[in-house]
Every structure is written in structure tokens, then in C-alpha cells.
Amino acid sequence: MRRFVSLIALATVAAAAAVLPAACTKVSTANGPSARAGVLRIAVQTEPKDLNPILQSDTTDNMIDRLLFEPLVSADARGNPVPILATEVPTRENGGISKDGLTITYHLRKDAYWTDGVPVTSADVKFTWEAVMNPANDVVSRHGYDLVTRVDTPDDHTVVFHLKQKFAPAVDTLFAESDSPIEIIPAHVLQRYPNLNQVPFDSEPMVSDGPFRFARWIHGDRIILERNDRFFLGRPKLKQIVIRVIPDENTAVNELRIHDIDWMFEASIDTYPLVRSIPGTRIVWVGINGYERMQMNTQRPPLNDPVVRRAIAYAIDKKRLAQLLTYGQEPVATEDIPDWMWAYDPQLPVYPYDPAKARDLLRSRGWTPGPDGIMQRDGRRFSLVVVTNNSNATRRQLIVQVQAMLRSAGIDAQVKFFPGDVLFAPAGMGGILQGGKFDLALDGWYAGLDPDDSSQFTCANVAPKGYDYSRFCDPAMDTAERGALEHYDRSARKRAYAVTQRILAREVPEIYFWWYRQMQPISTAFEGFDPNPVTESWNAWQWSI
Known about the structure:
Elements: H1 11-16, E1 23-28, E2 39-44, H2 59-68, E3 73-75, E4 81-83, E5 103-107, H3 122-133, E6 148-155, E7 158-163, H4 170-173, H5 187-190, H6 200-203, E8 212-218, E9 222-227, E10 240-245, H7 249-257, E11 263-264, H8 272-275, E12 281-296, H9 306-315, H10 318-326, H11 355-363, E13 368-369, E14 375-377, E15 380-381, E16 383-389, H12 393-408, E17 412-418, H13 420-423, H14 432-435, E18 440-446, H15 454-457, H16 475-485, H17 490-507, E19 510-523
């Protein structure tokens, strides 16, 4: 999604996986915010392709979808599991997880209704799982859902998931805060369609069960949501939410400055010097399981050679990038699991910045410097296509820095920019990453509370089947990931993740620049904003302005 990952199956595991708490920094209130009472105005960089929760592909989609639809289980700001449509979080202690770990049982609330007055029932949950698994639907990832053999509905308010194998992050993955969050959709509205890729509901979801209901979508401009007065967790405090599409972050900063917006959603760190000095604005920092990275398409020569990928790792000065582009606000990363998580391995090998070493490794593979300093072999220059999204100001700077660093190692980088909704779109909709139309890709990943990264690095999830955009497929990685997912014991999982991290360090399918502390600039008048590490809008019914 990220970006996204999981709240864990056992309460004891989930509690210990608690993330860094969100922290608020007051910037200035000298002039005071000029908010519209009861109306929250949000700026997003990319417009969603649709509003169907099973088709979402990035964190913008997820934030908006969660205003309209609800999952079975969520998490609070500290990462503690919170039941939403479920009455409690399934654990072994309460019988929700069977002793053999192969059955997960949910009991649903009896006061949840769709906006057309129809009750939310177990039939909706079963239908949503079937829709996710329907190969005709353009679902970005079926990770975890494909481990379910069947879903039973013994009554309207009981749902039983039967698993093929033990899966430790099951409760956090199945309609929860996973690395690909999916909310429940209404069966009585959608079950008549053979697929959900182009149905009226996708752009006008008139039936929903979240704190807000769809009102209007002015494409290319804004989405307007109205309060759902019958929301089962309580009447929302906000009357309306206006989501404005503002692709250029400089424009969004100006809108924040003149108080025409109240929240600059997931602002890039590049805007930090600007937003920290805006009167009537504060910055909410959210510690998350996520990172800024460069993916390598390991199916494309010469990147199918791990020695070449290591050379590229030596060519990148990560410390300089983090200091230059994050103003010292983001920690330099080793591999994908951040240093505050229980699965982090502090003994991982690192690649120090060493362009001479990079050139030596390329020479060992038959590459020699050409007249212009670019490596060549068999009459072909070492030239790679690097892609990123043009809406992110930090990445526009990052890609220039990376291009220069690669050149210092004799690698020519041809830059291509794409709108975010094209870069991250499903393969069936022309997505660049899903379709493998790149050599190197600069993007970010937002995960959840569980260290499960199998949706990115296992053979079964090689895009377009999942989020393994780097097309990395290694039997040793698959074995280690199975060990991490089939054990509910944390110590066993930690050992397995130590193996996965070392494989990533050795094979280098991706380079991790820094781990995220997500910056959320908001109006000081915006109250109740308490994002969890996966979804900013999980408690939107409690927001006020």
C-alpha cells in the first residue's frame, strides 16, 4: 500500500507489538485556525480510482474507504487490538482461535446496519471473502485470504474462517489492519455482479456502514462525505468531510497556510520546513512499520544478478539521503523491519557507501567503463529506467540524488515520473509496479503491527499476484517465511525473521533508505485525530472541528 501489515492473532503478541505512540508537535497558534465548524477538509495527493474497499491499492484509498466502511478488527493509536464489527478480538484464551490454530471465529455486533437499513451480517463477511478470492476481481493482494479454505456462517452474527495451515497474523490480516486492509462490503448490493471492477458502486457507494456516507464525487477535484447518523459506534461529531485532490504538495502547503484545508494527508517530509512554521497548525508524528525504498526488478537483466544488486547498494549513500531529505527526522534503515519492532535484527550486515567497491563488483561481472564513465558490456551501456510518483516532493528530490549516485558508480539512470494512481494501480488497470514496467522504483511501504512481510518477498506473491513488485523469488526465503507464519510463539517467529532479514541483506531485492515517522500536518482546531500505525481514519467518528 503502504502500502500496510497486521495486528497479531494472539492478544499477548499484539500487545507486545505495540508501536511508537503518535506524538503531537504544536507549531504555532498565533493567528488561529479558520476552520469551518463540523466540516473537515482533507488534502490528498492522488485521487482514488474507485471507492470499493476490495480494490484499494494504496494508503490514500484505505484512509478514504475507512470513512465509509468498517473491518472486523482494528487497532488503537498504540497498536492494541480493537473490535469494530466483531464484538471481541479472537484469541486462544477466549476461544476465538482454536487449539490447533486452524479455525478463527468472530461474533458480530447486532447493532450494525448498512445505510439503507439492512443489517450487517455474517453473509456480508462471507461474500466479501468470496469477492476477494474471485479471480475476476482486480484485487491487488489476496495474501492471507488465500489461506482460508472456507467461511461458515452458522447464524447471522457468527463467522468461522477455516485455514489451510497455521497463520499467526490471521486475526490481523482477515478484514483487519493488515498490509492490505480490506473492509466488509454489502452482499445484498453487490452479489449479483460477476465481477466488481466496473460497477456503479465503485464510484458511487451509496450503501455503506461506516461513520460517513457517500454524497458526491467531483472527479479530479473532490469527494464529499456526509455524516452517518445511525453509525453503530456512535453519532459522528463531524457533519461533513471534504476530500480535496491536490497533487502538488506546494499547493497543499499554501492551502494549509491560508486555512482552506485542515489536514494535509501523509505529507512528505520534504514539506517539514514549511509546515512547521504555519500558525494554527500542528504536526502529528506517527511511528509506523514502513519505509522509503528503492525496489529492483529482479526479473530484468542485469538486475537478476545479486552481485549487480549489491553493487548498486554500495553506490547509494543512505546516511546522506536521510539527512539531506528528511531534515534528520527519519532514522536510516537497514532492512525492512524497523528497529523498534520485536522482530528487528540488530546484527544485520550493512553496505557502506563505496562507489569504488560498486565499480569493482560490476567489473567482476564483465562491465567496463566506457568513454563517458558509464559501464558497458557487449556493446551495451549499463542503463536503467527508474520510476516514481510525481506527486511526492521528497521523491522528486530523491530520484535526482539517486541518479547522481548511480552515475558515480558507472550506471546511467533514466528517470520516468508517473501519477500515483498509475504507478500503484493494479496490473489490470495499467499499474507500473504491478506490471513490472521498470528497472528501479522509488516508493514507500506502509505495513501494520505484525512483522509479516511475506506478501512482498515470497514466490506466491510475485506481482501481479501480490505486492512482490521486485519479483523476488527465493526458496530459502519461502521456507523462512513459512516458519515465521506457522508459529504462534514469538521466539520462534523472531528466529525466522532473523533469517528473512539476512536473506534480504544478501540478495538485495530492495534498498531501504529510512524508516518512517509519518508526518501529518493538521489544524489545531482538528480534535480527536488519533491515528493508528496503519489507518489514520480508524476512529473518524470521534473527530471534531
